[in-house]
Write a structure and sequence with these properties.
Chain lengths: 255, 245
């Protein structure tokens, strides 16, 4: 696979240090959630989206998360990426206690460590494909400025979008936009990719193209956490976790 | 530049936006669709121009051509004296970065950056301000749109109205002469929409020029001029009491 061989070139060692985040031993687990509770307060009352979730993900795993709407899937992903904060419990990703960082520290940490992929792509409409990737590199600060344009084009090649490097997102199909968004997520060579319904807004052919890209990335050793409502796609990951009503209710290894 | 008299003439009497016989045809396997059939439109400094029309009438295509997010098939597009129709995608992006702030219906904020970082982001590209100035200016803009208290939060922690205020602050990051907004209140309840339109009206009073697409008649009333599109043509143009009332 092209992706496979290309990613092997991507050998930046994982020697990051976080001055502000306490290092935490987590037995080789890349993601370690302990008793995570998330309660939302609103004028209508309180709503508990996560009711004490424990979850461990090993480095290199491809894990799918399924569950009905409102089961807590997105909240779970959001506490792992630090976009949302747990009300209680611990969230440890790549030895960093996310819950002990402030918002700005989390943004810096996330920029370097996690590639985040959304259902609606979230590319900036006013920037070309390659500029969207360069932007992520600006924020990550992982690669010297002089190397960034070459790396951005390399990533677009990796996802099969090199020919569209200088096009604006609105001139690309949904599937193509998601491929560019995946290239952006890879910009800083993150240890973890998270994807919240990445194929949820795509026709079945584009969904297959995008999912296949995730499979190739998993084969190349990327750790992937993917929320999906598509059980057939979920079953193609190594492991599936099922949420209901804010709890992990089932968990199985596929194949 | 190519002996064009227009290019050198950017006086106050010259329109800030000047569209001349703009045609846009989309071609696909299923055939071709003419989205704009020869649009002539001049917008002067300080105008609050409302673009109305049914779905498919060409409203979004029209504003996308003004912002350079889409290219015309033929015709001329002059923005602040610059011939946008002759520009490459990259050159159009540079012009847009300096001269036009764009606001979208679905906000298009980056979920992985804080509110403050979202506003600083376009300044990074235009390099008009130093990093220290960027932070100060972003905070000022957040104050202006009344969400400075949320500077360190992420966009998803804000309400829809607040997210659109943030998007407006971001659109103003490089102090553009023109703001273009495509259905900016399209996903809001009427109270929230009114507050967002109040903000646009304030910006017009401060000298900003605004092009705003809407299908909401109450929103449209706030403009200084309303044009209506149908089948890719301007079928009506009326001045309104709007913000002067």
């Amino acid at each position: 696979m092209m992706v496979d061989t290309m990613l092997k070139l991507d050998t930046k060692q994982n020697t990051r240090r976080y001055e502000n985040g306490r290092q935490q031993e987590s037995n080789g687990r890349l993601v370690d959630l302990r008793e995570v509770v998330k309660t939302y307060q609103s004028s209508a009352g309180t709503f508990t989206a996560l009711k004490g979730v424990d979850l461990q993900v090993e480095s290199g795993a491809f894990v799918s998360i399924i569950g009905k709407s409102g089961s807590g899937k997105s909240t779970l992903i959001n506490v792992i990426t630090g976009i949302d904060r747990p009300t209680s419990g611990e969230v440890i990703v790549d030895h960093v206690q996310i819950h002990s960082l402030n918002e700005e520290q989390i943004a810096v940490w996330r920029g370097r460590s996690i590639g985040v992929i959304f259902q609606f792509f979230q590319l900036l409409p006013t920037l070309t494909a390659v500029e969207n990737i360069l932007l992520a590199m600006d924020y990550g600060g992982q690669y010297p400025r002089i190397e960034r344009p070459e790396r951005a084009l390399y990533l677009l090649e990796l996802v099969g979008m090199a020919d569209h490097a200088h096009r604006l997102p609105n001139s690309l199909s949904g599937g193509q936009q998601q491929c560019v968004a995946i290239a952006r997520a890879l910009a800083n060579d993150p240890v973890l990719l998270t994807a919240d319904e990445p194929t949820g807004n795509l026709d079945s052919k584009s969904a297959e193209m995008v999912f296949h890209l995730f499979e190739n990335l998993a084969q190349a050793g990327k750790t992937i956490l993917m929320v999906t409502h598509d059980n057939d796609l979920a079953a193609r990951a190594q492991r599936t976790i099922k949420l209901a009503d804010g709890r992990v209710v089932d968990e199985f290894t596929n194949r | 530049m190519n002996g064009q008299v227009f290019h050198t003439n950017t006086s106050e009497s010259q329109p800030l936006i000047d569209l001349r016989n703009v045609v846009k045809i989309y071609s696909s396997l299923a055939g071709s669709v003419t989205a704009l059939q020869g649009i002539d439109l001049q917008v002067h400094r300080g105008e609050f121009l409302i673009v109305m029309g049914k779905s498919g009438s060409g409203k979004t295509t029209l504003v996308n051509i003004v912002t350079g997010l889409d290219r015309s098939t033929s015709g001329e597009i002059w923005v602040d004296g610059a011939p946008l129709h002759r520009f490459s995608t990259e050159k159009a992006a540079r012009l847009r970065g300096k001269t036009i702030g764009v606001v979208f219906q679905s906000f298009e904020l980056l979920p992985t950056l804080t509110v403050l970082q979202n506003v600083m982001l376009p300044m990074d590209f235009a390099r008009r301000y130093s990093v220290r100035e960027q932070r100060q200016r972003a905070l000022q803009l957040l104050q202006q749109v009344d969400i400075a208290d949320h500077a360190r939060k992420y966009p998803t922690a804000l309400s829809g109205g607040q997210q659109q205020r943030l998007a407006i602050a971001r659109a103003m990051a490089n102090d553009p002469a023109i703001l273009v907004a495509d259905e900016p209140t399209g996903s809001m309840d009427s109270g929230t929409a009114t507050a967002v339109i109040d903000l646009f009206a304030d910006l017009v009073r401060q000298g900003r020029t605004i092009l705003l697409v809407t299908h909401d008649k109450d929103v449209a009333k706030r403009g200084s001029r309303i044009i209506t599109l149908a089948d890719g043509e301007i079928i009506a143009s009326e001045t309104s009491e709007g913000i002067h009332a």
